[in-house]
Amino acid sequence: MALHRVNPEDYSQQLQQKAARLCERFREYTDLEPEVFPSPPSHYRLRAEFKVWQEKGKAHYAMYRQGEYKQPFIIEEFTVGSELMNRLMPQVLEAVNASEVLRRRLFSAEFLTTLDGDALVTLIYHKKLDEEWEREARALQDRLGFPVLGRSRKQKLVLERDYVIERLQIGDRTYEYKQVEGSFTQPNGEICRAMIGWAKDACQDSEGDLLELYCGNGNFTIPLCEHFDKALATEISKVSVASAQENIRANGITNLDIVRLSSEEFTQAIDRVRPFRRLRDIDLDSYDFSTVLVDPPRAGLDADTCAMVARFPRILYISCNPDTQLDNLAELSKTHRIERFALFDQFPYTDHTETGLLLVRR
């Protein structure tokens, strides 16, 4: 995570400047002003990883500026982190520094928290974790009131659980998500709620079926299902697919199927280029897809997936990289126009911008 200056008093002005830059970049494709969804100005980040800098027998949380990995930036405060994270950080560090077993060869600490008040602490080592470590870690776990997990090379020691449960209030319904340590989750909880709410609003009065690529743990798919007859979602990560299946059951969803396929593989499947055993229980011909939701990694959509997506009447395109989204728009704009345009400020005080587009066939 990049180091940056955090001053809540400057946040509104910085966000206005970010929105103005985004408008200019997308001006070739739309005259719409973006719907701007601001982040809380502080305590907005739900997960974070810190390096542990050890000096004179004492551990410190640290980060590094890019290219300066031998010059740590010691973390004395972390106001961008959730309030729960800020309560746990000093307790963990105090326990680590009071225990040679917990401190020795510790090189990283990760915190995963939720808006709903759950948390998981992961300690990562350059040593094998033994029974002595487990005893000390369990004592820390009891003190924190939240689970502690240990990792080292080829070793994962789960003392209680390796996940948190998040509950998000979207409109008049609460959705429950299992979020597994090490898998992707949205780092800014309030922006996550805003993104889901915006997507649901864009799907009001939809007809037909929904396809989602890169669905993760079902973060978007599960709330959107109520607006469609059926939904099919794909994800390549085994851990995320397993979480999505559990989240489907936890939320009582009955019209959604998840399959473990990459976007490239699904494109091959729907174009009948090759069959996939993972689709043996899915009848693609039974779907009447009207909308596709894509939330790709920073690389954006590959050319074949972009061409496949262009065949849908409506495209919801969430992006963490406007550069590659604009590259894809060069093709998608030939068949679709932008009907809605949104800015989600996932990472305040940085140049990072996340966008949402609703594209409708011309």
Automatic annotation (TrEMBL):
The reply to whether Glycoprotein figures as a keyword in the UniProt entry is no
Q: GO annotations under biological process? A: tRNA methylation
Top-level taxon: Bacteria
Annotated EC:
2.1.1.35
Q: Does the keyword Transferase apply?
A: yes
Q: Name one GO molecular function term.
A: rRNA binding
GO CC list: cytosol
Catalytic class of the enzyme: transferase
The entry's keywords: Methyltransferase, S-adenosyl-L-methionine, Transferase, tRNA processing
Residues forming the catalytic site? C320, C320 (nucleophile), E354 (proton acceptor)
The UniProt entry, under InterPro entries, shows: MeTrfase_TrmA_AS, MeTrfase_TrmA_CS, SAM-dependent_MTases_sf, TrmA_MeTrfase, U5_MeTrfase_fam
What's the catalysed reaction?
Answer: uridine(54) in tRNA + S-adenosyl-L-methionine = 5-methyluridine(54) in tRNA + S-adenosyl-L-homocysteine + H(+); uridine(341) in tmRNA + S-adenosyl-L-methionine = 5-methyluridine(341) in tmRNA + S-adenosyl-L-homocysteine + H(+)
A Pfam family cross-referenced in the UniProt record is tRNA_U5-meth_tr
User: Where does this protein hold S-adenosyl-L-methionine?
Assistant: Q186, Y214, N219, E235, D295
Q: Which family does it belong to?
A: Belongs to the class I-like SAM-binding methyltransferase superfamily. RNA M5U methyltransferase family. TrmA subfamily.
The protein's job, in short, is:
Dual-specificity methyltransferase that catalyzes the formation of 5-methyluridine at position 54 (m5U54) in all tRNAs, and that of position 341 (m5U341) in tmRNA (transfer-mRNA).
Q: Which PANTHER family has this protein been placed in? A: TRNA/TMRNA (URACIL-C(5))-METHYLTRANSFERASE, TRNA_TMRNA (URACIL-C(5))-METHYLTRANSFERASE
Q: Which HAMAP family match?
A: RNA_methyltr_TrmA
* Protein name (database record): tRNA/tmRNA (uracil-C(5))-methyltransferase
Organism this protein belongs to: Microbulbifer yueqingensis
